[in-house]
Design brief:
It contains eight helices and seven strands, in the order ααββαβαβαβαβαβα. Helix 1 (2-26) packs antiparallel against helix 2 (33-51), helix 1 runs parallel beside helix 4 and helix 2 packs across helix 3. The chain has helices spanning 2-26, 33-51, 78-85, 102-108, 119-134, 161-167, 198-207, 228-244, and strands at 53-58, 67-71, 89-93, 112-114, 138-141, 171-180, 211-217. It is an alpha/beta fold. The chain starts with a helix and ends with a helix.
């Protein structure tokens, strides 16, 4: 019966995506930023419920910006999970813009896209992020630059942290985990790494039993005179500590 349940979840999730695209098209232009954040949060929480993913939030989500959030990265599901906990504007690799349906959805929600390997594009993104932070936004980046297997953190890229230094904005470390609800052990279903395809990872998630998404918030910190590389290493250590707790 699991494949039938997964198919039913998939059909409902597709309908929910279409509804989300309609909301973006017809409502976002006339909503205030707090109203938009509320719509995004409720839509993503409903999506997790449809897919059978339980959201667990530990620590205190931020109330307002300016703030740069940094988190470990394992799955296409990370953006939905973090928006369900506390909506923000994401900085993502340009590949995500081409994801079927999901790409249109996260684009409509205000995601900023970064071309990997393009230094000029990275510099423009840092300036744009600094401007958004100075306006009081909450931004989120995945400094590993790609998804990992959830077993160990990849090295953190430091370039985008320059935006927080330039805007004198705090950075909030966040640890993401996907676990089994009955044991707390890592759940492999949403992992999107290596030869795993996007559709394969989505299907594994729809088939999963007892899947919990855990978002653990740390404490915001300022650069305190650190350059971006030192700060990136310190943030990586802090996220590793949050994951190990």
């Amino acid at each position: 019966m699991k494949p039938l349940r997964a198919l039913w979840r998939g059909l409902r999730a597709t309908a929910h995506v279409v509804r989300g695209l309609w909301i973006i098209r017809t409502e976002f232009g006339r909503l205030t930023p707090p109203q938009t954040e509320l719509v995004v949060r409720e839509w993503t929480r409903r999506m997790l419920l449809i897919m059978g993913v339980e959201l667990v939030v530990q620590g205190t989500p931020p109330e307002q910006g300016p703030l740069l959030q940094v988190a470990n990265h394992m799955s296409w599901l990370d953006i939905l999970v973090m928006n369900a906990a506390r909506p923000s504007r994401f900085v993502s690799k340009a590949d995500a813009e081409r994801w079927p349906l999901l790409g249109s959805l996260i684009t409509g929600a205000g995601t900023l896209y970064l071309e990997r390997g393009n230094r000029r594009a990275a510099m423009r993104m840092v300036h744009h992020m600094a401007e958004r932070l100075e306006l009081g936004d909450i931004l989120t980046v995945f400094p590993e630059g790609t998804t990992g297997d959830g077993q160990a953190l990849l090295p953190f890229h430091a370039n985008l942290l320059q935006a927080a230094i330039a805007a004198r904005a705090p950075v909030l470390p966040i640890a993401l985990r996907f676990v089994r609800s009955d044991s707390g052990e890592p759940h492999p279903a949403p992992i999107f790494v290596g030869e795993t395809t996007l559709l394969g990872s989505i299907w594994a998630t729809l088939n999963a039993d007892g899947l919990q998404a855990v978002v653990r918030y740390g404490e915001p910190q300022h650069d305190q005179g650190r350059d971006r590389r030192v700060w990136a290493n310190d943030l990586r250590d802090e996220i590793a500590r949050l994951l190990a707790r």
